[in-house]
Amino acid sequence: MDLLRFITCGSVDDGKSTLIGRLLYDSDAVSLDVLAALEEQNRTSAAGTVDLALLTDGLRAEREQGITIDVAHKYFTTPRRKFIITDTPGHVQYTRNMVTGASNADLAIVLVDARQGVVEQTRRHSIVAALLGIRHFVLAVNKIDLVGYSEQVFRDIVADYAAVADQLGLRQVVSIPISALNGDNVVKASANLPWYQGPNLLAHLETVDVSREASTDAGRFQVQYVIRPQTAALPDYRGYAGRIQSGVYRAGEKVVVLPAGIETTLAAIEIDQQPVSVAVAPQAVVLRLADDVDVSRGDTIAPLTQAPEPTRELEATLCWMEERALRPGRKLLVQHHAAKTKAVVQTIMSKTDIQSFTQQEASEARLNDIVRVRLKTAAPLAADTYQQNRTTGAFVLLDEQTGATLAAGLIEQTALVEPEFEI
User: How many Å apart are CA 169 and CA 333, to the nearest integer?
Assistant: First the structure.
């Protein structure tokens, strides 16, 4: 069975945690001990029913306040597919958490309260999901029971979100009316929605095609660890361990080590200490090279014909995650997977307006702002644009002193700069 990673996003109180709880509950994916604990915990509640949101709201503060703060991951399986669900916070102040949750998702369920319609946070989360390269969207119009299962309300919200999708260039949006609390149209079709002829939510999740051929992406492998046993049995062994980030690697092909630009041949590929002739993303492998070259953690080994151009200048979209504002001239660290280098913010080029989706002039970035910036790095990076490669086109910015995460970044453009630049 294949795997679908999806997130739930939208504004606060739109029912994201309850929806995930309903999916797990109605799919018989809740263990008996957890179910018994939930029923006992809710025995004295006013409603007298199981609060399904508690299946994902694990923090004490979340349970007390009835909101989602942290990112929660849940796993379940149906006869047709395996799923990893990420429940993301709805509050504006936790948008940074939503960014981390969406970074590996294939599909986004955007929840909208049928009574409220499309609101600012709906738009904000849609922007972030689109920026992070999610191609498949489900508009789940929740709490449809609270508007009398009205078809007109549903159609109006679908029309409003269609304008958002058009502005963001979203081409694969499926709209589904649901009631997460009552279970209408989540796992089973609902008799309360005779006017809706489409699939229920789970049926769509089981059948949506999110597959991509690994061979369509350029080969990318970043060294995580250099293996040199230096034992009598293996005196000359030198291997480079890591995960294939994208593409296909074949023993015997010509490769280049970046950023140094050293050309060599891929002598062998090992998986679980056994040689293989071919490996594809996302397999964890050890690569061995034909020549004795200087390769360190963070270096990239790429097929010679598909290699990126190392760069020390980036234009990137950032979601700023620190309360202290970002201004030009600030020095920080760029963490590009295993590679880390100092960098400086040259320019804040523009900021995304959440209402109009237009780019506006900006002199700084405040918490949760989405901005486009130009960075210069102290060392060259073997990076792609995010449009070219979702894995190698992403990075994070760190504080030089504390190591705290300051921003999630998506590379929009790369350019070569002069090597004498220093930070």
Answer: 32
Task: Assign 168 to helix, strand or coil.
Answer: helix
Residues 249 and 378 in one domain: no
Residue 238 and residue 177 share a domain: no
| Cis upstream peptide for 282 (omega within 30°) | yes
Peptide bond into 79 cis (omega under 30): no
In sequence order, which ranges of 27-150 are alpha helices (DSSP H)? 32-41, 60-65, 95-102, 120-131
What pTM does this model have?
0.77
Amino acid sitting at position 360: Q
In the chain the first and final C-alpha atoms are separated, in Å, by: 49
Boundaries of domain holding 368? 311-415
Each residue's pLDDT tens digit, 12-70: 778 888 888 888 888 876 665 565 666 666 654 555 555 666 656 443 333 344 443 34
Residue 281: give its domain's CATH number.
2.40.30.10
Integer Cα distance of 269 and 333 in angstroms: 32
Residue 91: HSE in the Cβ half-sphere, 13 Å Cα cutoff: 11
pLDDT per position as a tens digit, 124-168: 888 888 888 888 999 999 999 999 999 999 999 999 999 999 988
Q: How many domains does the chain contain in total?
A: 3
Quote the CA–CA distance of 124 and 128 in Å, as a whole number: 6
Strand, coil or helix: 205: helix
